[in-house]
Design brief:
The chain is an alpha+beta fold. The chain is 20% helix and 31% strand. The longest helix has 17 residues.
Length: 255
């Protein structure tokens, strides 16, 4: 599952984090993803998820803790996966510099990644979560190039997910799903329509806005079993301003 949590913004009024965080954990518990990639989570939000969702391990290696920073972050179900190695870096010309940004990026952007092995099987693969800039067109393209180079440098299966702030068919999408990079959009693999029902941003209204900007991309090592945009809500209240996306995957050659 990829899930843009919406950062803890008091200006959101009745949609502020404190009023909807239980909706977030309830959604995650209901759908039970083995791997969860979040975006926009501030450290206080991520700690809440870590402490509330006790069945998950938070992957935040060597992280510089900054109360105002929004971190893309992976969570793994402890019964399903073991982290073998991993890290994170900024999508800039100086990736090792905390909160660095380049080009016309409005905000610093980051990628969190891990190599994991499945419990009780020999499946090993890479997984990453990211969040590209929402303003800078050049920045978004250059950030995607960094992601593409990272994918090409991996050996074995790869999952890349996140909020890409762009549309299917955009330069960013075309680059990451090109034959040179080798990733496939799980939604498109199943032949799902690109229409209002597939839009993932809704601004806390439940009414689709913009485009399907939240993607789960996988290498050809995976078989896509299912794909769903989760629209859970309680009355007129929604867990976030984005609908999370959930996919079911099997390794090819595995049952």
């Amino acid at each position: 599952m990829t899930f843009n949590l919406r950062f803890d913004n008091k200006k959101d009024g009745p949609n502020a984090w404190s009023f909807r965080r239980e909706l977030v954990t309830r959604l995650i518990e209901r759908h039970g993803p083995s791997i969860l990639g979040t975006q926009e989570g501030m450290w206080s939000q991520l700690v809440y998820l870590r402490d509330t969702l006790s069945e998950y391990h938070i992957h935040a290696p060597d992280r510089i803790l900054d109360a105002t920073c929004q971190y893309p972050t992976l969570f793994f179900n402890k019964d399903d996966f073991v982290v073998r190695e991993g890290g994170e870096f900024w999508l800039s010309k100086t990736p090792e510099v905390h909160r660095s940004k380049s080009w016309d990026s409005a905000f610093p952007r980051m990628m969190n990644y891990a190599q994991v092995s499945a419990v009780n099987s020999d499946n090993v693969f890479w997984v990453a979560v990211t969040h590209l800039d929402h303003i800078g067109t050049e920045a978004r393209y250059q950030q995607a190039r960094i992601l593409a180079n990272w994918v090409k440098s991996r050996t074995g299966p790869v999952i890349l997910m996140g909020d890409f702030n762009d549309s299917p068919g955009s330069q960013v999408h075309n680059m990451l799903t090109s034959s040179d990079i080798g990733l496939h959009d799980t939604w498109q693999v199943l032949g799902r329509e690109e229409d209002q029902n597939s839009t993932t941003h809704h601004g806390f209204t439940g009414v689709p806005q913009k485009t399907r900007m939240d993607w789960i991309l996988v290498s050809s090592h995976f078989r896509v079993i299912e794909a769903e945009i989760i629209k859970d809500h309680s009355g007129d209240r929604y867990p976030s301003d984005h609908f999370p996306c959930l996919v079911g995957l099997n390794m090819r050659g595995k049952s």
